[in-house]
Design goal:
single chain, mainly alpha, 6 helices, 117 residues
Amino acid sequence: MTDTPPNEPTGAEEARDISEVPAVELINTVAVHLLSAAAVKVGLADDPQEQTDLDEARKLITALAGLVTAAATEIGDHHARPLRDGLRSVQLAFREASTIQDAPGAGPGEKYTGPVN
């Protein structure tokens, strides 16, 4: 006998089959995770002195820029626009947090997005 009350989904029923998840939803989910992690690493979280790591932020921002740039035509402007806006925000936050400035076009993700200022 299980402890699951009647009409309550079990763990197996709660998990979605990956084959049923639309590509746009997967892309957006991954992008939001990258964006959130990048925001924390550039110091936009609750404890910036403990959580800021610009080396890690650079990697996350570059991965996000590649994903957003490559997926934009597939997911449509409706989904891509907010991701591009978030990407630009973390790119600018990175530039502001950096003590040594990258040359224009050499900042994180800028090889995909072009220079951000």
